[in-house]
Amino acid sequence: MMRSRFDQQLTLLNSSLIEMGAMIERAITQATKALMEQDAALAREVMQSDPVIDEKEREIEAQCMRLLLSQHPVARDLRQVSAALKMITDMERIGDQAADISGIVIYLADSPYIKKIEHLPQMAAAAIRMVNGSIDAYVKKDLALAREIIEMDDIIDDLFTVVKDELIERIHQKAENGEPAMDLLMVAKYFERIGDHAQNIAEWVEFSITGEHKGKLL
Questions:
Q1: How far apart are CA 196 and CA 119, in angstroms?
Q2: For 169-198, how does the pLDDT look when each residue is reduced to its tens digit (9 = 90+)?
Q3: What is the pTM of this model?
Q4: Angle subtended by helix axes 40-70 and 2-37, to nearest 10
Q5: CATH classification (class only), 2-210
């Protein structure tokens, strides 16, 4: 009976993680759309949604604590709940970074970009795939998928290097490109950090399954 109740609570925890994942996917998607369209109103919506993501983190944290305190979990259960606690920290930071991108979008809303920004939505798309895949791997206990997601961070890192090199070239061409180039570089850096956090999430999924954590922590 106790085990059945514990399993039901784990199922609820999984549902909450999926909900939070959908929230941060929406934040990344909307921040990227606002960036592409220079839509300050949409960017403000993303910033206003950040406290809702923070509240979801607190809700899941409370679920995890109830699971740890009210039951008698075995080692595998402890890993699963501990991993969830770590994952939501990275998920909340992804929400922060989507809000940070939106803040820059608002600042740049009235000025044309100094270059095409096609690589930034590519970074966003890869980050969304990583977030969704890592949460899916957690729910399904899919170690192969978690490891596949970990490797995907290289895609975002490579795109960041491309964006950085292009922006440096713009500055070399015209000194007054310096400030707007740095703003766009910060956007790229936030997308790169989102990828790092998504990688962290996948590494905590790996820990939940194997008991080993090999990754870098931010």
A1: 17
A2: 999 998 888 999 999 999 999 999 999 999
A3: 0.91
A4: 170
A5: mainly alpha
